[in-house]
Amino acid sequence: xxxxxxxxxxxxxxxxxxxxxxxxxxxxxxxxxxxxxxxxxxxxxxxxxxxxxxxxxxxxxxxxxxxxxxxxxxxxxxxxxxxxxxxxxxxxxxxxxxxxxxxxxxxxx
Amino acid sequence: xxxxxxxxxxxxxxxxxxxxxxxxxxxxxxxxxxxxxxxxxxxxxxxxxxxxxxxxxxxxxxxxxxxxxxxxxxxxxxxxxxxxxxxxxxxxxxxxxxxxxxxxxxxxxxxxxx
Lengths: 109, 114
Description:
The complex is a heterodimer of chains A (109) and B (114). The N and C termini of chain A lie far apart (39 Å). Chain A has strands at residues 4-7, 10-14, 19-25, 31-37, 44-49, 55-58, 61-65, 71-76, 85-93, 96-99, 103-108. Chain A is mostly beta strands. In chain A, strand 4 (31-37) and strand 5 (44-49) form a beta hairpin. Chain B has 114 residues and is mostly beta strands. In chain B, strands 2, 4, 5, 6, 9, 10 and 11 form a seven-stranded mixed sheet that branches. A four-stranded antiparallel sheet of chain B has the order 1-3-8-7, with no helix packed on it. Chains A and B meet through strand 5, strand 9 and strand 10 of A and strand 4, strand 5 and strand 10 of B.
């Protein structure tokens, strides 16, 4: 299957700080997606990106679709305690979605 | 219903037993996906349905795994002769049409094989 690597694996930050995480793949994707998963829940879609170079925002979240179409990053500005969770990138090929290994975010109040 | 529901929320079974996991998608969603999520990993695609038919089952790990969606709504994932390595959270997701990026996930069924 497709391999998507996320970094960092985990982050511990102070409330109010900005966060940056990224995702790289050996394959080209036509769509990049970012999800957040809370404990005991399924992932929830945060942002979808459709074009190489595209930069998209959703509130305090900003994500970019890499020029090579093999990478993407997610930034969270002014983190708050409810940002805690695991963030997954995903790439889409056809009707299949391939998920990254996840970045665990802890926000210290 | 308001969202995707999955039952049971937890299932503990013994090695070699048969289990069924159920998914109730959002009403009207034609596409339904099953994923398996192991501890510390992202969801891994198993199978997806378009209506009643399995449009892509390439993610099923072996022939012990099977899924059905006989009326194009509820789906059941069936695992025969369970093995300890099958222990994981099994997630179901649905979307209005296949390939639509807005997939709505259920809370998952945590399967533990002793």
